[in-house]
Amino acid sequence: PVSLLHASPSTPGGQPSTASQSIGPLKDVLRQQERAYIHRVLGHCGNDKEKAAEILQVSMATLYRKLSEDE
């Protein structure tokens, strides 16, 4: 991944913001977002994987597979 300084739409004159953002292949970015969302849902459910799978509308097998990809 590459670090990128990006201009914020709210920044006057389009000056680069000080926040940096990692960029890379789309599949990697999407996987990172998916992983973060799965963990957020698990936290919301008190780590109840059955409830999380129901909310995410995925099978338990899919949830476990996606969680094992984190390791």
Could you outline the blueprint of secondary structure elements for this entry?
Elements: E1 2-7, E2 16-23, H1 26-44, H2 49-56, H3 60-68
Antiparallel strand pairs: 1-2
Helix pairs in contact: 1-2
Quick overview of this protein structure:
This protein is an alpha+beta fold and 71 residues long. Helix content is 51%, strand content 20%.
Describe this structure in words.
- This protein has 71 residues and is an alpha+beta fold.
- Helix content is 51%, strand content 20%.
- It is built from three helices and two strands, in the order ββααα.
- Strands 1-2 form a two-stranded antiparallel sheet.
- The radius of gyration is 17 Å and the shape is elongated.
- The chain starts with a strand and ends with a helix.
- The mean pLDDT is 81.
Summary tags:
single chain; 71 residues; 2 strands
Distance between the termini: 19 Å
Rg to the nearest angstrom?
Answer: 17 Å
SSE succession: EEHHH
Strand order of the largest sheet: 1-2
**Category by helix and strand content:** alpha+beta
Number of helices: 3
What is the overall shape? elongated
Largest beta-sheet characterization: 2 strands, antiparallel
Helix content percent band: 40-55%
The low-confidence runs, each spanning 5 or more residues with pLDDT under 50, are none
Overall pLDDT, averaged?
81
Question: Beta-strand percentage?
Answer: 15-25%
Query: How many individual β-strands?
Result: 2
